[in-house]
Each structure stands twice: as structure tokens, then as C-alpha cells.
């Protein structure tokens, strides 16, 4: 996986999210230090065989979290988020 490709895709996805969603952390509601979070984490998607491009093209799987909330979530599935289960099932169907 090219680090430059991942950075470019991440920057593009973050710009899209900032323009199309409310630019605040979905967990704590702060507008500071926003990062991209994959609802279904990259580690899981990688284990399922998805490419970097595929991980960033599905905007339904991306959300904005502040750095602190994203670090806390780490690479876990957050089933408090109602999008987690349907997204996970969607990815499992594609494997």
C-alpha cells in the first residue's frame, strides 16, 4: 500500500466529508482536530482483502471524528453506531 496514495485519498475524502456533512466530531461534537474514521476499520477491511482505493471510495463507511475520539475507537467496531452492522454485512457480502 502506497503511503502517498493513502494520504491523497484520505485528504480527498476529508474534504468531501467537510463539504457534505456537518464539520464536527460525530462523537463529542467538537469542531477541532477532525480526522477521517472508517466505521468498519481499515484493519478489518484489509483482512477482508479490500484495496486502499475501495476503502476510501465508499463514503458511507467514512465519518469525521476528532483525533481523541478516533484514537479511543482505535480499530474496533462501534455497534452503538447504527451504521456499523449494515455496513459490515455489506462488506461481508462482497468477500
Characterise this structure.
By secondary structure, the chain is mostly helical. It has one domain. The chain has 5 helices and 2 strands; from the N terminus they run αβααβαα. Strands 1-2 form a two-stranded antiparallel ribbon. It starts with a helix and ends with a helix.
Strand and helix layout:
Elements (H helix, E strand, L loop, with lengths): L2 H18 L13 E5 L3 H6 L4 H6 L4 E5 H7 L10 H11 L1
Antiparallel strand pairs: 1-2
Write a brief caption for the model.
Helix content is 51%, strand content 11%. The protein is mainly alpha-helical and 95 residues long.
Give the biggest sheet. 2 strands, antiparallel
Percent strand: 5-15%
Count of DSSP H/I helices: 5
Apparent shape: globular
Rg: 13 Å
Low-confidence stretches: none
The largest sheet has its strands arranged as 1-2
Helix-strand sequence:
HEHHEHH
Cα distance, first to last residue?
A: 19 Å
Per DSSP E runs of 2 or more residues, the count of β-strands stands at 2
Number of domains: 1
**Structural class, from secondary structure content?**
mainly alpha
Question: How much helicity do the residues have?
Answer: 40-55%
Mean residue pLDDT: 91
Amino acid at each position: 500500500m502506497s503511503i502517498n496514495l493513502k494520504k491523497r485519498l484520505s485528504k480527498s475524502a476529508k474534504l468531501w466529508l467537510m463539504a457534505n456533512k456537518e464539520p464536527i466530531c460525530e462523537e463529542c461534537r467538537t469542531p477541532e482536530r477532525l480526522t477521517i474514521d472508517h466505521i468498519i476499520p481499515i484493519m478489518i477491511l484489509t483482512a477482508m482483502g479490500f484495496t486502499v482505493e475501495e476503502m476510501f471510495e465508499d463514503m458511507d463507511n467514512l465519518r469525521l471524528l476528532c483525533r481523541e475520539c478516533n484514537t479511543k475507537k482505535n480499530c474496533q467496531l462501534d455497534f452503538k453506531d447504527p451504521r456499523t452492522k449494515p455496513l459490515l454485512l455489506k462488506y461481508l457480502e462482497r468477500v
